[in-house]
Specification:
By secondary structure, chain A is of the alpha/beta class. Chain A is built from ten helices and six strands, in the order βαβαβαβαβαβααααα. The first copy, chain A, is elongated, with a radius of gyration of 20 Å. The first copy, chain A, binds a DNA duplex (30 and 30 nucleotides) through helix 9. Chains A, B: This is DNA-binding NarL/FixJ family response regulator.
DNA sequence: AACTTCATTACGGTTTCCCGGAATCGCTTA
DNA sequence: TAAGCGATTCCGGGAAACCGTAATGAAGTT
């Protein structure tokens, strides 16, 4: 089994549960941290000491508090670790079950498992660790269709950027000017209108407000 | 101390943590459920058996699964319990730290404590139980300004209804007609415009899309 | 009854958004 | 080189939203 495991989660009681199942799996070298920055430092230190971690189990959202963090979220942590320590296995253990978010995480950072916190969360996590140890990918039943479902697969970064800009209060014309300045194409007002129209059809949104609201609900923005 | 306590939370590991601190507090009659409906039934049964619970510790959000629920969220549970068993002490233990949501919960259902899940969550929960036992109100430091801060206090149900309607894709005119039908006043298009304008000023939103996005972010809708 | 006050409603002009058609550009293929 | 095709851009008319102002209505006050 894994020789050295790190668990990152800011809720003490979650950690407790994870430690319990870890023990059942025969993992006897498990450490826990409550901040992503701590996780990063430990993992780097492990490398320097020639005693690297071989598994990270991490949450996605960490509460902010007085400590300012370089990596405020699990996603930030994963991003940097995937670059610097590509051999480390990463299991995400999060409450997040919105398909778009899960989909982006899996495709962008190519994590080894995605487990949803929930009633069966610990069981699934246990299974996930075993699967990942065998070099297989694991995903919770609950969000497994994040991979297969094609319905919203043809939404690219431009669409997301557009919706984010709208949600932040910019008018379509302002966005157009902004894109022109930043050399983002397409940038014409007409193109923006057309893109929004496409999105509205895809999500059956009746107007732009509705579209942005849906985008927020499904975790797209 | 409390004689009979019920803990409602769908995450097993959270429950584990809560049970631990309960033991430390000298609570030796603590039960746990993973669904709000189960919580409701147990509490009602306690009443019938003349052996009522005197404390409920509950989460707010419960994941949906195959079991269809009459009370899908903690808020639904609290709502009905406050009517039917006003003597029961209720402690909310949730990850939710958005002020508007906390504020509404406290003012509408007059719960006995609000504790944020987080790094210090269990300690605070322990403190909360003690305070509530002494008939005092408890709220986590993190969201304590939900009570004092007046900035958004003059937002009423009408405003929320309006924003919800917008987020669901209705045009202002459609909302006006809908309000007229349902005898909700004010209902004229002009009034709706005015109200939206007031909200935009309060939240420094530059347009309606922005306003709805902010409303979603802060948990107003 | 006349007056004040405040919320609601009505209205008109301006801006933004919405939507379709047509022209242009860039790339591929014949 | 020409033709074809999709993406982008330009344009124009109509709808919805935006914004200020005026009219109406329902209290309570003098």
């Amino acid at each position: 089994m894994f020789k050295k495991v790190l668990v990152a989660d800011d809720l003490g009681s979650i950690n407790l549960g994870v430690l319990t199942i870890a023990k059942n799996l025969g993992l006897n070298n498990v450490e826990r941290v409550e901040y992503c920055d701590d996780a990063y430092l430990r993992i780097k230190k492990g490398l320097l000491d020639n005693d690297p971690y071989d598994l990270l189990i991490t949450d996605l959202s960490f509460k902010e508090d007085h400590r300012t963090q370089k990596y405020p979220s699990g996603e930030d942590l994963i991003k940097v670790l995937r670059k610097e320590t590509p051999n480390l296995k990463i299991v995400v253990y999060s409450i997040e079950d919105r398909l778009q978010k899960v989909r982006r995480l899996i495709s962008q950072y190519n994590i080894n498992a995605y487990v949803c916190k929930g009633r069966k969360g610990l069981e699934e996590l246990s299974k996930a660790v075993e699967e990942v140890y065998e070099d297989r990918f694991f995903i919770s039943e609950q969000v497994s269709h994040a991979l297969s479902n094609k319905t919203t697969l043809d939404i690219d970064d431009f669409d997301v950027l557009l919706l984010r800009n709208l949600a932040s209060g910019k008018s379509q014309e302002e966005i157009s000017l902004d894109f022109k300045q930043k050399n983002i194409t397409p940038s014409s007002l007409s193109s923006i209108e057309k893109r929004l129209n496409k999105l509205k059809i895809q999500f059956s949104a009746s107007n732009t407000i509705h579209l942005v609201a849906i985008g927020k609900d499904i975790g797209l923005i």
